[in-house]
Amino acid sequence: MTDLADAPLRLSDLSEQERNARFARLQQRLVPLWEAMRLNQPGESILVVPSVTPDGTQSGADLQALEERMLFLLLLLRKPRMRVIYVTGRPVPESVVEYYLGLLPGVIPRQARARLYMVATHDGSARSLAEKLLERPRVLAEIRGLIPDPARSHLVPYTTSVLERDLALTLGIPLFGADPVLLPFGTKTGCRRLFEEAGVAHPIGYEDLHGLDDVIDALSRMRAAKPALASVIVKLNDGVAGRGNAVVDLSRLPGPGAPDERAELRRRAEAMTFERPDIRLESYLAQLERDGGIAEERVSGVELRSPSVQLRVTPAGEVELLSTHDQVLGGASGQTYLGCRFPADFGYARAITREAAKIGERLAQEGVLGRFAVDFVVVRAVDGSWTPYAIELNLRKGGTTHPFLTLQFLTDGEYDPGTALFTAPSGREKHLVATDHLEGAGLRGLRIDDLFDVAVRHRLHFDQARQTGVVFHMMGALAELGRVGLTAVGDSRDEADATFRRAERLLREEAGPGPELPLPPL
User: pTM of the predicted model, to two decimals?
Assistant: First the structure.
């Protein structure tokens, strides 16, 4: 009879508290690993698990496209001893893999391909990739066997949750990302409190709201503090890319404290406009009651923009200011993330960087690791100066991560927070315009090989000599969803924008309806 004390420990044997404690010990391996990563030693590897938490509206094809968004990490194969293990739900077409390997500077694609292992769960359902992996011990055993040296390997997620934590525990490698116990800092309630503690300006508002009555109370108090308040945004705590936002119109209301004010506020709140048009009030309020949210002023002014700052906290506790971006927004009320421009406008890039640094230092003190971004709204005054307000903290990679890292990996350039410029080793500035949402029904007429054909014929493809051109991503969504992402790189803001517009125009033209094929003779 086997002694139970000698039985191997399994994840299911551990309570949540025990998993958290074991994960904290596992994460300590990141400190020596971080230093060793610069030495190009044998056995070095990364495991990429680009798992996305579904929002309830995304299809399996949507999630697969988002999983493929991190394929820029294949560019890490330029390190001659690096092994990359990349996991997705559905298999990634080999033509897409070859596309990224063809971008590698100074590397023979065949040699790089031998160090790349693409693993698929063969499950295209609309569930998170981490969940799919945890229910497939055979796939996990395969991945574990592909890691040459666990002491020189780590897991790179898109976001972190208890699922990614459990993956790290099962595989026995640390995870470069925020510990799930710290994720409350990244909720809408948590980040507002963090901004207050860090002394960073943010819109007036109230957090930790649960239900319609809480929203009405917050609106009343905000109007008492600022009677001219015209519009308020209600946000779900865990809303992403603006999809959990709703706008409450407060114009032309009775004065603060009027007898009928509360009744009017209730009517306005019940008529809130949702950023996602398919949302209904009942379901929104149910989620607000369950998960919580905030209400804050919708900042207004003569001119507003929505920049962000990317930061990273290393395992050594150092805060690195990585980049600034101007976000391109759309949607019902202009709160849905569509793309970005890099770097952000010089008029406010340094100001938002200073404010973001305060938040980064505060997070580092709490033990947060990995990449994160702070979103701002900036308002221009009559004298041309800009005033920044922090509005969100994303404790994960986001829509600005992959364009920036693609540029960095391809050019070996660096961003200088002091000058707010990104320069390549040649001394030339580099700028980009990127989107995940070049879409239209007509684009379904293009296959991946058609996309490559268009890029080559029209000389859109990224040119390593000039370090300008277009890099595509999310290509697997092209034929099924009629959507593709792209990053356009230029030596100036205007050149990057012109390259982006040209690529967009040519793709739409090429995807247009062609002549109908004649019927063959009978």
Answer: 0.92
